[in-house]
Model the fold of this input.
Amino acid sequence: FIIPDFRGFCHHLDQIYNSCKNNTNGKVASYIPQLARLKSEHWAVSVCTVDGQRYSNGDVNVPFTLQSCSYVMTYAMVLGLLGAEEVHSRIGMEPSGRQFNELCLDYNNKPHNPMINAGAIMTAALVKPNLSAADRFDFIFNMYKRLAGDEFLGFNNAVFLSEKECADRNFALAYFMRENKCFPEGTRLHETLDFYFQLCSMEITAESGAVMAATLANGGINPLTGDPVLTIDAVRNTLTLMHSCGMYNYSGQFAFKVGLPSKSGVSGCVLLVIPNTMGICLWSPPLDTNGNSCRGVQFCMELVSRFNFHNFDNL
Ligand code: GLN
Done:
């Protein structure tokens, strides 16, 4: 009943997929060799509805790293562990209006929000800080796996190692936050950064990413397994910040034009959530100047021009 004519809907998706395929704008991220080697031709669209209907087109089984899209999963999880009040005593909820990795904090000397690097490093610091590094990794891997309904989840060690090697800015952000007493007492800075790089280096496919997005669309209950992975409140807060801060410095324009919660990552991934309806994972490595996938953004625009999915459609 969610999408009454799913076949007809898929026909539209095919058309949008093909139209975006012609878009050859943008540049693949090049700050680490492992990302620079991504082929700009890759283009994948995968959909999972809250009642479990699937659509996939293109390179939907090719693994890629989550990068900033991991911020969403980790933030949602931490909300469930600590509650919003505790989490937001350390991280703001305001769009920064600055580049995602800019060396700045908000007026309270906190990272602006969990959807940019500083906030995501803080989020990482809040995940089970008393566990060993290995147990923390296992814990988060297991949670991500549940979000993906046991579909593909990997870890790209080469990306992890090179993230770690080329991370001057992330180190600078972490030290800057430590200087401003942002972290909880006892936070181990290097271990926290390692953990953050590990989260960025988790691999999904467009198909498994669509299930993760669908879990967010479905109030935190995985639509395929019925597993209640996230709390309702955590999902509400996460979708809210995806809506206002998920697309870097394009978030305001995206909210205006597309009106849906989404998160992009430097590997060319866009997770798009149509609440109570479906999750969509888009993947195409070439990025625009804001750092968002060119084809991914175009897809979102064309989707809402055909269907009234914009948050404020039909009021
Ligand atoms: N690993 C990247 C970084 O920390 C993630 C950023 C991104 O996806 N925009 O810079």
